Description:
This protein has 2 domains: 22-389, Methylamine Dehydrogenase, Chain H (7 Propeller), CATH 2.130.10; 425-488, Sandwich (Immunoglobulin-like). Helices cover 7% and strands 40% of the residues. The protein contains 3 helices and 33 strands. The strands form 9 sheets. It has a 4-stranded antiparallel sheet, with no helix packed on it. A 4-stranded antiparallel sheet has the order 11-12-13-14, with no helix packed on it.
Amino acid sequence: MIKKIIVILILLQTIVCNNIFAQSKRGNEWVTGRGTRIQFINNSIVTKLNWALGPWLPYFTGGNSNICDTNGNLILCSDGFNIYDSVGNYIDEGDTLVPVDYYNHYDGWISYSQSSIFLPMDSNKYYFITPTNSAGNLCYSCHNDAMIYSVIDMNANGGAGKVVQRMIPFATNGQFRKTQMMACRHSNGKDWWLLKQAGDSNRIHKFRFTQDSVYNEGYQQFDEPIWGAWDIEGQSCFSKDGSKYASSSHGSSNGKVFLADFDRCLGVLSNPKVITMPTGSQYNPNAPSDSEKLAKGVAFSPNNTFLYVIGQFNIWQFDFADSSWFHVSGLDTTPQAFQQYEASYYGADGKLYIGNFGGQSKQMSRIDNPDIKGAGCNFCPRCLRLDSLGIYAAAGTPPCMPNYSLGADSCWPVGITQYIHEKTQLEVYPNPTSSTLYIKSSSNSKRELFNSIGQLLFTTKENEIDVSKYSKGVYYLKVASKFKKIIIE
């Protein structure tokens, strides 16, 4: 029996390791600016212009995204509205993947941060996801009302790929922000969680993408921040291991950044916290204070020790250990129009790259040692340079990409996902709760409450439980063979 267990563990470890390796090169190449290609090859960076796109096509900035195959070769890129192949041609059925009115309103491409994302699945299948407006209510301060996806089969057309499902709505009649959308791989190593900020309030919608279906997993509502109507820029991110979530916006959030722990098994956010970017400019003391409190980008350090907050004119490092702030840098150039900082993403070299709003710059700044506190993080101003590529080169912003390298992880209890998503007679309400939890079940079995690491807290036969003495967080209620996740707030 012991030998069998060891063999199973070895096989599981091999599967997980192979999965991590298979996904590790998905982000090895970026398309940004006017179709500039940035390749991360071993310890060097190779840049070139993708001339097939032409110098006058829309910018790949803000709303851009792309993905490579498992060998690191670029296969798909998007300006937010269209899908192109590796040389800049539309893939079959890949043009105008949002409603026509929305497409025309923004001249065929989108500059809003995190407006599109690619999610890989098995059998060379990919989801392409974007928020959109289906009601024709188009203005700079209008929220989007829908989320849509398209499906790409890269086995079609002899490997050239084809969009086999177009513009499928998976959330409608909502109030979704144009920005602040990010994905994290499910702990099963196959599915994806997609989190999307909504409206003026801090309401976070959660969706689960599987091999053949998309599930709306509801939302969680938090008191702060109140983001405001304007959302041209903003960013949501997960930590490298998927255990933490952060979100920021340049709207009227007054420099606030939302933080929470994330459960990759259940898609639950817990232990919410709000931090506020320091006031006052380190670059332009005469600038209006409001313009200095626009938290436009966020990124965790790989070791989860720090959070980098990217403002319009300043970059800050927040230390989770002592809640201190370090000023990494002011603006890396003169404050010209469209040269302020934008969203930030990690390159395949482990360095944090910081984009520029508007996509006009020929350089991009970076942080070379993001795990080091203070000045040791080594801010490198405008060190990713495209000057040699000529007048048509533009750095823009890195593409919107999740951590494609994140593999499987164990969930507790074993097999809990099969219980959570099956139809069952076990009901609990209200959920979340801070006082009394009511249970409705056809079973007379004992009611058991577990904490997030599987420790049994108490057992009862009653259908009314006082949970006020427990701290905020995620718990599990078990009745017979059924589990329900409980959130105590």
